[in-house]
Amino acid sequence: MNTRQVIGGEREFLMSTYTRPDFVLEHGRGCYVWDKEGKKYLDFIGGIGSCLIGHGDIGLAKVLEKQSKKLINTTNLFYTEPQVELAKKLVKLSGLSRVFLSNSGTEANECAIKLARKHTKKSDIITVRFAFHGRTFGSMAGTWDEKYKKDFQPHLPGFVIVNENEVESAITENTAAVMIEPIQGEAGVRFFREGYFKQLREICNRHNILLILDEVQTGNGRTGKFFAYQSYGIKPDIVTLAKGLANGVPIGATITGKGINFTPGSHGSTFGGNCLASSAALHVISVVEKKKLMENARKMGAYFSGELRKLKSPCIKEVRGLGLMIGVELNITGKEIVGRCAEKGLLVNCAHERTLRFLPPLTATKKEIDKCVGILGQVL
Ligand SMILES: Cc1ncc(COP(=O)(O)O)c(C=O)c1O
Question: Are the beta carbons of 174 and 168 closer than 8 angstroms?
């Protein structure tokens, strides 16, 4: 198919869920992708953060080839080694106790919601303003923005969405947990005030409710630590991961602290924990560790934010970031800027209308960052 045929085919045969630019991506290497016409783009949205170690990783391709020739999926009716290896690794990295493996961020959050209800025998989950937790019914009920929810009533009951400073007053005898992102990605890389998570941990302890952290976007080393909570000096009762964990091979993980567990038959998944995705995730984590990509995220993130601040464009309101999760809030809407950047060979996206969001692979170099900032400067 040529470019025109792919775009026409998408419009005819796929459901209308995304508005896409008019080029067709075909292959990638590291932080770069190429379209069907041979145009090269610097990919600094990286599959909304799912491309953690870069495109076209040969090591990952070898792992996928080797594993797919052995076993792809047996379902969870049987023991397989890669999922146990992965769970062991995630337990070690998180300091928590057990893992349930699924296939996406929203599923990882659904699992967390079910666990919270089962463990506490209570119904209510408190989430906060601007939260985004996914598109399925539990995660969607905890998501703040009506634009994701308005056509899908009735919503799952038991969700209470409050301002971030009103969590404690929203707790009742029915509250099972608070669910929150350490940095709100879809809201435009929005940070909570200093000390917020320590206070929230204390509130949850005092009221004997669970703290669920949704690290679907912040996890896997993106912010400079494997989990963002490790920068805040707290530990959640449940944490969820997805996106970059297997570099784009679908996977989700829900990791729990001591005593929070299902019972046989109380949860399940046909594909969750399959050999292919688990092997991919093990490879990705080993690359993150061997290539010191969390250190790179810290160093390059600081450099990137600094260079963005130097732009001093009147269109820029604020630059916010931790590691390689960076938002540039504009005084104008970001849609046109995103389009102009793509014309000049830079892929970024816009979160919450006015914030350009950068989630590049953790392999990003100074040279690539300079290129990105150069293009953005010209466009602004
Ligand atoms: C914080 C957060 N939670 C959950 C999700 C949903 O993940 P998925 O799209 O893999 O279902 C996202 C996706 O952007 C997210 O950013």
Answer: no
Q: Using the mean position of ligand 1's atoms as its centre, give its distance from the Cα of residue 2 in Å.
A: 31
> What stretches of the chain adopt beta strand conformation (E)?
25-29, 32-35, 40-43, 98-102, 124-128, 159-162, 175-180, 183-184, 190-191, 210-214, 238-241, 252-256, 316-322, 325-330, 346-347, 349-351, 355-358
Using the structure block, give the residue that is written with the tokens 């992708």: 33
The Cα–Cα gap between 18 and 125 comes to 29
Q: State the catalytic residues.
A: 132, 214, 243
Determine if ligand 1 sits within 6 Å of the CB of residue 215. Answer: no
pLDDT (tens digit per residue) in 172-185: 999 999 999 999 99
Q: Is the dihedral of CA 270, 274, 280, 282 positive or negative?
A: positive
- For the chain, give every domain's residue range: 3-53+292-379, 59-290
What is the pLDDT averaged over residues 56-83?
A: 98
Is any atom of ligand 1 closer than 6 Å to the C-beta of 106?
Answer: yes
Measured from the CB, is residue 358 less than 6 Å from ligand 1? no
Strand partners, 211: 178
Q: Does domain 59-290 have CATH number 3.40.640.10?
A: yes
Q: How many angstroms is it from 38 CA to the middle of ligand 1?
A: 31
Give the tens place of pLDDT for each residue, 307-327.
999 998 999 999 999 999 999
CATH code 3.90.1150.10 for 3-53+292-379: yes
Could you identify the atom of ligand 1 that is nearest to the CA of residue 250?
10
The DSSP secondary-structure symbol of 189 reads: S
Dump pLDDT digits (tens) for 216-258: 999 999 999 999 999 999 999 999 999 999 999 999 999 999 9
The two domains 3-53+292-379 and 59-290 share their CATH topology (first three levels equal): no
